[in-house]
Amino acid sequence: MAQRVHIAIIGSGPAGLSAAARAAQRDRARMDAGEISEPTHILLESFSQPAKTIQRYQKGKFVMAEPGFLHLRSDCEFGAGSREAILTQWQEDIARNGINVRYQAEVQAITGERGNFSLALANGDVVTADVVVLAIGLEGNPRKLNISGEGDSALADRVQYTLDDPEEFNGERIVVVGAGDSALENALALSKRNHVTVINRRAEFSRAKEANLNAILQAINDRRTTLDCLYETNPAGLEAGDEGIDFAVETPKGRKVLSCDRVIARLGGFPPRKFIESIGIEFSSEAIDAAPTLNGQYESSVSGIYVVGSLAGYPLIKQAMNQGYDVVEYIHGNDIKPADHELLEFQFGLLPYRRPPNELLDLFQQRIPMFSQLNVLVFRQLIIESSIWVALEGPSFASTKQQAAQLAEAAAQRQPSPKTGKLIRAGEPIFRRGDYTNTFFMIVDGEVILERHEQSATPVRLERGQFFGEDSLVSGRPREYTAVAGSDCVLVETPRRTMIKLLNSNDQVRCGIDWIFTVRALQKHFAPELSPGELREIAQTTQLNTYQAGEPLFRQDEQGDCLHVIRRGAVTLQRSSDEGDLVVAQLQADELVGEMALMGEPVRRHTAIASVLTETIVLHRDSFMKLVNLDSSSISQLQARASKHARTYTTMQAQADKGSLIGFMMDEGMGEATNAMVIDESLCIGCDHCEKACADTHDGISRLNRSEGPSFAQMHLAISCRHCEHPHCMKDCPPDAIHRAESGEVFIDDSCIGCGNCVTHCPYDAIQLAHTPQPRQSLFSWLLKGAPDTLSIDREVADQGASGSGKKAVKCDACMNFANGPACVNACPTGAAARLAPEHLVKLVAKQ
Amino acid sequence: MNLHQSILEYRKGRYGWWALLLILAAIVLFASHSDFQPPNGGTWQGYVLGSIGLALIVWLTALGIVKRRYGKSNVQAWTSAHVYLGASLLIVVSLHSALQIGLNVHSLAYVLMCVVIFSGFIGLYFYRRYPHLMARNRRNQSQRQLFSELNDLNQKGRALAKRCHPNLASAVDTAIDRTAIGGGFLDQLLGRDGSTVVLIEEDIKGGIQRKPVSNRDQQAIIDYVAKCIPRARKQGEAANIQSLLEVVCRRQTVTRQLRQDIKFNARLKVWLWVHVPFTIALLAALAIHILSVFYYW
Amino acid sequence: MQLLLRQITYDSSGLPEYADSELTRDNIVIGRSQKSDIQLLDKGVAAEHARLTKSGDKLRLVAAKGQSFIINSKIQKQAELKPGDEIRIGAQTFICTEAPTGFDLALEWQFVEMPEGALSDAYRTSVSQLGFSPRIASWVLFVLVLLVGLLPLLSDIWQADKPAVQAANELANDNMAFHKLWLSGPLLSAHELTTGNNCTACHQTPFVQVKDNACQQCHVALGDHVMPAEHPAEIAEWVAALDEFACQNCHKEHNEPASLVARNEGLCLDCHQQMKPSVKGFSQDAHPEFALSLLRPDVTRQNGLLAIDWQLEKLRPQASDGHESRISAVKETSHLKFPHDTHLDGEAVKHARRGDALQCADCHTLSSDREHFEPTSMETSCASCHDLGFDPRTPQKQLPHGAPEEVYDALEAHFVKLAFSPDTLVGFERRRIPGRTFTEEDCDQDYACAKQQALRETGRQFSQRGCVTCHEVSEQENAEGSERWEVLPVKINHDWYADARFDHQSHLAQWDQSGDAVCSSCHSATTSAESSDILMPNIAQCVDCHDGRAQAGRVALTCISCHAYHRHSAIEGTEGIGALMQGAIHDQP
């Protein structure tokens, strides 16, 4: 039976739901006017309930309403809250708006053209529609086991592809199939109360995140946890057994039957791209997470098919809901301004020229060559997330300052308040050398001068269309130069998170940035007198290599024909001999490795090993020669540096014990630290004053654990944040609550929702989840009764993990708000505690 | 950037020089006693020295508070000054008292002060010596890790013992059960080991004797296990006992390390049990001393 | 009791494993400590948690004090065990089963793996777990010290409640044991004796220094320091301005060693450097020349009788340029003729017994005040050489050492007796004494002749030899008989420096000199031919060895080393000053 509608909306996520609600409201108006008797829209959902992705969230998960400055434009309600509250709200909204929803309706194919699309459903039904709104999200459908007995209805409630609440199961024997992160997270969570067997088709867990990998390996090796693993094993068949399920598997040693109560298959999902491409919709690139090509009204390359939501590149719920609303209005021919229009007006408010935001967006995109090919919507999103800087000279600065104040006032009155442009005086620095900021700047107008502080370095002048700040973005190191704004200069400052997202999805942008990074590195190290144009050719002969922690860049006694410039990460140099390996140096980003092969003996003297995830620019002999031939000005510097390196390395080599200490530090990840707590055990009396001080100055919760953490040669790396160059914790923070201060401290702000992602990501256990503050004790009560044993309480609280509500992630902020510096170091009565940067390590080791 | 410095080396012993100056000043002041009166707390020099002493004591005691007002001051600087100026107090106050000792509240204060200062010297010695020894003893492990290893060894040992002769199994079980670590005050402070083991031996007549014997340093059980190796009859038993021997020997090392760690920890803490209560008592005695002097002025 | 314990564990594949052990014990202890028979390593388990006992046929499980266990899901403190019971202690579960023969009880232990950290919790690994709280110890010591320290005050309060009949003295003595706790130094024994150790005898008001009237309760008749007659009025005002704590200025009690007098000169100099002569310290420049106390005879005749009024004159010889005082220019009058040089000349005068030269100490004996010397007298010092014989025929006959009348009477008696009993002089040939106009013919009558002879001899004694050798004799031309001569009374100055004191004793013992050399280092007796010479040393002599402040080669002197503050009311009693000073000199450290 074919049903005919005007608008078919596929997917009942936030975007689809919002679009359907708008369509339903329009239908209701027409029905009230008596124009139609049936709804002209349909919402098709493959699952039995709306918003499948959110349904799959962990029980009780707190959902954010980001971005805060964007207001919601939808017929459905949405605000930050628990998963359950939101789902209940949306159920109500479906009823209230009169949405014509059809569950269990999986669309398998779409054919036809504008005005006559036919949608084939899995159950054989066909829906025809004039226009189609695709709001299917990125999750896709779970991959199934594809083995016999899987569809057996007797087993239906015992074989599942999602895990809602791990706490629901108790004392069961559960088999988890899969080796991805979701499988491992499920297995780990379940193993607390159940006996879990993980089935991995391969010999190792190569797809998992590092934190999950470590946790699962530890759990497998720990015979006390009830978790074990079968490697290189494939599921073969399911059968109802005497006690639950008999799960037949093929192991390398032959077929085996596992008796279990439950099977959870986490095999990932089919990405929807194939389906979308089958409709004829084009994508912007081949990248995995590339978005379909869309015009400003979300219409895809197939006329009549609109794409909204996370599939369109808008992963945030609020944005998706706004789009859903807008797209229905567009379809009805109402060319409304998008909800973010006003936001852009505020952001562009200080520009010396006044034009509608859309035009300005076009102008901006044209001015920056790197972004000229970017999807309009992606660029729009980029600008919304960025800040616009305007630098003006004296008189115009004064007048614009008033304007800026008015604008800020107007913005403050709005709820939520939008971002406004930033105004600075021409000649003032945008950022200073040594700042730990890592945003990315593009010049739309005017010029910016980059002042390096080394002698002989001439300031670099950058003009319209060029960009800067990419070095800190890539290396995670502090700024190497001061950027000074020229007159009438207009800049776009893009936050790191936005930029990283873009780099990962857009090859063009990534290549552009990599190229300029390389050119600037070459210019800085080898040829300060060559222009970027002259360097272009040589830059193209270089390679960008990525090394995982522990992977060698080159080995001792190899013939070397290249040098490396470290782009990010850290490298240790090892000298191997009969007595064993000896670490002679550790090198940070922006340093050269292996230059000796080009400037002296070609045989490598050392093995260079990436101590953390490291990226290098590889410069081969020919290119190097060409470079120094073109510009010989820096040759003496290079030679001086090489001889200094040779000297220090050989000195270290002579002191075997010191090398092993450096080796230890590098093994423990000090290579990526910027500020780590190092305790001299020969002075530490174990009084735990450092912890008490930390707790006292940080809401009663210590952010460091003195007694734990690795030690070597009387040096103890206490468990405390090291303020990594590329903080692992920042990787996946839903509310973007983790920031790096200009002075380098990594801290978590109040917007933390306690999701625990950072806790999982931190390889050094430096983050914990804890309840909010405890009252401080008065001095008198301390004299009388002594301090309560807060430390032990905190540990217990922290041990309970992410499940508790109201907890927030806490970590060391290096006491950035205290004038006296870190409280832990100040509180140490014996001088055992110190906070060190890697630069100090050499001194520390030399002192030993 | 200053790397780790001990309290005595802090800023090249700056407060040591201060203390030395203070001592010299006190000696000069004391030497200025004229014939007016014999040296005494009651001369003007005595009053000045006494006031310095009082100020020092109050200031030195304040360390206890300062080090808990976290994040406000550099405690290492305070501690360094505490050590040096605390030592100088001994001279200042001795000069104040002109070493006149009697059975009275004044001498009580003096004696309490001496107890505090000398316990402080002991503490300083402990602080300088033990952290280093502790680190060496723990061999890059924490106490928790050592206990965790011991726990593993215990389980491993019991599991291995189960597969041996019941007498041996029982001996290993009792040795594990009756391993003493830490314990009472003296046990901890001296690292005493009161471990015992119940050994089962068959006498000539085939009778069974259960003998609880001292298992100090786990030596008895090691000897017992080792003795069982050549007597093993069943196949594979000897290998089993051999592994068991490795476990009990490793246990010996770990328990030693733990006992040492506990001992050092105890010593690092226990001197404060004298230092702190006597400081508080000293404050009381000092108040009485001042009251009594001015009550009968 | 025989117990069969079966521990059940599960291996990794879930198969149970059994481990049996037998326990034969009267009491089976279950607990966390390693001394337990069944050790349970768990936080919730006490060191000794429960005990299995057997009495008769009954098996009882009794929890230790404050502990409990769960038996068949009920919390119990003690229970009788029967097969089938399920006992839970901490995380562990035991099930009683039917005991096999030979056993009293069989327990199945459903062994649950000890949680991480349980092992370390089983031991006391830190001194802070021993239950000793330094904080409580601090408070206890604090209160204890306060109580002990406040005992004197507390005991006063307690004593105040005692019946009033109790004598005040008794009260003070009772409290003294406690009050001694507050004693900051020993009392002077005199004070200790008189106050009876009653602190409030002197310290009358708490927190107020000892006032003068407390001292004056005992020290009634203390001479004033300032003599209104001697000092100008303004100085009297200074003294009047001293407050009620003036005694304290100089007298500090509770010293160790016990002493009372403050020795620094500041207090004296406060006034004395403003006075004339100004005193700034003890040195040639800072201290004025010593003032000699000279005795001047005012000789008058009243009704023909000699009357001598000795006037004490203070004379401060002015220092001349070379700091050489003109003390030599001052002469004294003692009415005694005594050439020190002759007496000390071994050639001229020899000791009567020893036969060698005289020494100072032969005549001068230090009196017990260590400052002054015993008065020299004819009998003790002179008589051994200077006998009073007058007639070589009767050398044993001595004149009395008295007034001229007595001398005359003695001579008359002698000559009369000689005249009437010539036998007494058998063999004695009258000799003519050259130069004498004495003839037998001058006298016609024995008695009258004897009288004449006596008178003549008296005249000789008072004007030519004998008495006149040592004494000043006044002769009246118009007087008759023995009244013609009068011996001027001798008064030897006993205290040359009346306002100061000097310890001869300590000065006599010198490291490089002894005997007379010591004396003559200050007193130039060997060169003094006249008794009118003043042999007292001057300040120059003192500053050779002494100085106001301690310095190398000098002994420090403060004002009160020589001077006393309090004067006795009578200036006459110079000895009194010496006596008063005595104590002060002796308690010099």
Biggest interface: B-C, 67 and 63 residues
Largest sheet of chain A: 7 strands, mixed
Helix content of chain B: 55-70%
Average pLDDT, all residues of chain A: 83
**Portion of residues in helices of chain A?**
25-40%
Weakly predicted, low-confidence segments of chain B: none
Secondary structure: number of strands of chain B: 2
Question: What does the overall shape of chain B look like?
Answer: elongated
Count of alpha/pi helices of chain B: 10
Oligomer: heterotrimer
What gap, in angstroms, lies between the N and C termini of chain A? Answer: 84 Å
Radius of gyration of chain A, Cα only, in angstroms? 30 Å
Q: So what's the overall shape of chain A? A: globular
Average pLDDT of chain B: 89
Neighbour order of strands in the largest sheet of chain B: 1-2
Question: Major beta sheet of chain B, specifics?
Answer: 2 strands, antiparallel
Note the beta-strand portion of chain A: 15-25%
Order of helices and strands of chain B: HHHHHHHHEEHH
- As a whole number of angstroms, the C-alpha radius of gyration of chain B is 29 Å
Discrete helix count of chain A: 25
Structural class of chain B: mainly alpha
Summarize this, please?
Chain B is mostly helical and 297 residues long.
Account of the 3D structure:
The complex is a heterotrimer of chains A (848), B (297) and C (589). Chain A has 848 residues and is α+β, with helices and mostly antiparallel strands. Chain A is built from 25 helices and 44 strands. In chain A, the strands form twelve sheets. In chain A, strands 1, 2, 5, 6, 7, 8 and 19 form a seven-stranded mixed β-sheet that branches. About 2% of the residues of chain A have low confidence. The longest helix of chain B has 59 residues. Chain B starts with 13 loop residues before the first helix and ends with a helix. In chain C, a hairpin with a 2-residue loop joins β10 and β11. Chain C has 589 residues and is of the alpha+beta class. Chain C is rod-shaped and about 165 Å long. Chain C starts with a strand and ends with a helix. The C terminus of chain C is likely disordered. Chains in contact: A-B, A-C, B-C. Chains B and C meet through α5, α6, α7, α8 and α10 of B and β2, α1 and α2 of C.
